[in-house]
Structures are given as structure tokens and as C-alpha cells.
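Entry 14. Structure prediction run on the chain below.
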Amino acid sequence: MTAQFVLDNTRLVPVPLAPEVRLRLADEAIELWERTETDQGGQMPPPFWAFAWAGGQALARYVLDHPDLLAGRTVLDLAAGSGLVAIAAMKAGAAHVTAVEIDELAVAAIAINAEANGVAVTPLLADVLEQEPDAAVVLAGDVFYSREMTRRMLDYLRRAARNGATVLVGDPGRAYLPREHLTLLAEYDVPVPQTLEDTPIKRTTVWAVNPSP
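Output returned:
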């Protein structure tokens, strides 16, 4: 059972940069990935859902500190992972938050984490990047990690911005960050597990996506 796997392999802890949010997180990525594939009986994506990535932490902090951007609005959290940003959005006063993932374990983790924080988040198992954006606010943490993902994600985010949405992204300096299409809003020093990154503190930025072509 996916929910039980999440519960059995994580512990509930506060997020370092956004302690208002508690998540069920793991301590070590490779061992968890191996257990995931053994439990599910086949090849599985890396367990991104079991960690508070720097981009998500920075974006969650920004959202919590700027509730006026989300209050009473519909929100879409893309590549939601643990649900950190989605939960922060609900705590900031969003009317409704959908957290999108393509990993069924992430969808289970989002539901568990939302309940642990006493908020209602709608998890959605889907790839929505070819669809037409319709949320008032679109959020994405740590999504520019490959050339292809950046191409697809940026196209979706800019379409959302052109449709009038507020579009915010958090990024810890990934190689494919499309700075030329973004406006810098904030910077944070984010504590991260050294098993995931090359340093215990990751300088991380929050950006607004520009709608112009």
C-alpha cells in the first residue's frame, strides 16, 4: 500500500526554512529508492517526495511571508513532491490548492502531509504540462534540473503568466535555470541534507516568471 510505505519509511519533522510546515521525510535517498523499487516490484522514479528540496523550501518561505499573493485564490503546485509548497500555500490563505505529481508515492505523501498539517490539498496524479493553465497562482519548486524538463515547464509557466496568473518558482542554482525569462524576488540560505546536495547550506532564489515572449 503506497500510503503505508510512506509512513513506514519517513518521520514527521519541521521543515528547516519553513518550520510552520511539518513533513514526513527520509534521511537517506539511495536506500529509500532501493526499498521503493523492491516494494513496488519494478523500476520507480527517485523518491523526490521524501525530501524538502531547497527550491521548495525557499518558495514555501516566500509564500508564507507574502500571503497577500495567495489569499482567496486558486493555486496549482507543479511537481509538488512532498506537498511542501502546496501546504504552505494553504497556510497562507489560498482558497484551493491542487498539487500535481507523476509519482503515485508522491501523491500519497502529499495527502499524508496535508493531513498532518491540518490543511486540505487536492493531490493529482497527472502530467498537466500540455494542458491549458487555469489557476490564479502557479508555483513550482526545483523544476529546472534537465534541459527537457526546463523546456516543457517553462512553456507551461509562461503560458500561465500570459493568461494572467501569478507564477513563482524556487531554484537553488540548477544548471538549466532560464534566468532570461524570470524576475528575481528573493534569496535565501537554505539548510539541506548533504546526502542530496554538495553543501549543507544552499543559496536559493525565488523568481516570478515573465509573461512576455
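The chain has a mean pLDDT of 93.
Filed with the rest of this week's runs.
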